[in-house]
Amino acid sequence: MKNLANGHTVAQINPTKGFRIHLLVFVLTIPIIWAIWFFTSRTYLWPLWQTSAWAVGLLFHYLGVFIFKNQNH
């Protein structure tokens, strides 16, 4: 941890672990969203928007951690 001038600390987070947590939350949450849609009104396919937007975010997280990792510094 690094101490800052105002006394706050910055946690050193392992980027790979952060991505795995993001992926785990995605895998656990998306089926719940689809189940809510399935058991309620199925007139509009709204979970598709959440799934695709979150998948794009997950893709960029993956690219930032594993593909472009050496270009950050």
What do these coordinates show?
The protein has 73 residues and is mainly α. It has one domain. Helices cover 63% and strands 5% of the residues. The protein has two helices and two strands, in the order E-E-H-H. The protein has a two-stranded antiparallel ribbon. The longest helix has 25 residues. The radius of gyration is 17 Å and the shape is elongated. The model has no long low-confidence stretch (mean pLDDT 87). Keywords: Membrane, Transmembrane, Transmembrane helix. InterPro entries: 2TM_dom (IPR025698). Pfam families: 2TM (PF13239). This is 2TM domain-containing protein.
Structural class category: mainly alpha
Shape, principal axes of CA atoms? elongated
Order of strands, main sheet, comes to 1-2
Our count of helices gives 2
| Separation of the first and last Cα atoms | 18 Å
Radius of gyration: 17 Å
Strand content: 5-15%
Summarize the biggest pleated sheet: 2 strands, antiparallel
How many E strands? 2
- Low-confidence segments: none
The average pLDDT score comes to: 87
Listing every helix as H and every strand as E from the N terminus to the C terminus, the arrangement reads: EEHH
